[in-house]
Write a structure and sequence with these properties.
- By secondary structure, this protein is of the alpha/beta class.
- The chain has helices at residues 3-10, 16-20, 80-86, 100-117, 130-143, 159-167, 172-178, 191-211, 217-236, and strands at 24-33, 43-53, 60-69, 122-127, 151-158.
- It has a five-stranded mixed beta sheet, sandwiched between helices.
- β4, α5 and β5 form a beta-alpha-beta unit.
- α6 packs across α8 (191-211).
- The longest helix is centred in the C-terminal third of the chain and has 21 residues, at 191-211.
- The protein starts with a helix and ends with a helix.
């Protein structure tokens, strides 16, 4: 039995999701902020959507979403242009906002629970322009003195890049349109709405790749090995 076949058999006992991204558990994140600087500008909204993988079809779908309106941290910068763009009024008492430590702690709690159930070792952020969202998550984690984030500190899956490759579009609304995912521009720039639309887009792209034969890779590796063995026999003859 070849090493590739042995490795494939060893993985059969693991949850399928834990095998898909080298042990990473993908979580879709979106943040709405009061500027572009994660160190100085306020986090105003954050949402996270976990994903699930059907063991029979190998297809991803949305699982659970958690969302918080967030109070600016003490001394946070609030850029007027950013507030005008998002339409968020941080002083509105009807927002039901929580402090950022409460928000990030609850999100991390959900992520760890789902990650453990999926047999994954580390979570990875999926986002549209992922470096931006990851930067704010890292900054909040540092401000709140949380020792360890479940997320990889610098690796992420960027749906901007993925949709540019798969759909020829980089704007979230246009990429969703190309994937025939309903998108309401009047609801955009809400962390809750954008997170779930980004999650739908990510699932569409990953599922399409799987349908086209791009995964599972074990089957491709085994086929390549059989071709190699066949060529070796032919050469020997």
């Amino acid at each position: 039995m070849s090493e590739n076949t042995t490795a494939a058999n060893a993985n059969t006992d693991k949850p399928l999701l834990s095998q898909r991204f080298r042990g990473y558990f993908p979580v879709v994140i979106d943040v709405e902020t009061a500027g572009f600087n994660a160190k100085t500008d306020a986090l105003l909204e954050i949402a996270a959507t976990t994903l699930k993988l059907d063991e029979n079809s190998g297809q991803f779908s949305l699982d659970e979403t958690i969302h918080f309106n967030v109070d600016p941290f003490e001394g946070a910068n609030l850029e007027p242009a950013a507030l005008e763009f998002t339409g968020i009024d941080p002083t509105n008492p009807l927002r039901g906002a929580v402090d950022e430590k409460k928000a990030i702690t609850e999100i991390f709690k959900l992520v760890r629970k789902k990650m453990k159930a999926a047999g994954c070792q580390r979570a990875i952020i999926v986002a549209h322009n992922a470096a931006f969202d990851l930067g704010f998550v890292n900054a909040v984690t540092e401000r709140c003195l949380i020792k360890r984030s479940p997320f990889h500190p610098f690796v992420s899956f960027d749906t901007t890049t993925l949709s540019g490759l798969a759909l020829g579009q980089t704007v979230l609304a246009k990429a969703c349109a190309a994937a025939q995912i309903d998108f309401n521009n009047s609801e955009a720039h809400s962390a809750l709405y954008d997170t779930e639309k980004t999650a739908e887009l990510f699932c569409f792209i990953v599922n399409k790749w799987q349908q086209l034969g791009g995964w599972p890779l074990a089957a491709i590796a085994e086929e390549a090995e059989l071709d190699s063995d066949s060529n070796s026999i032919t050469s020997a003859n």
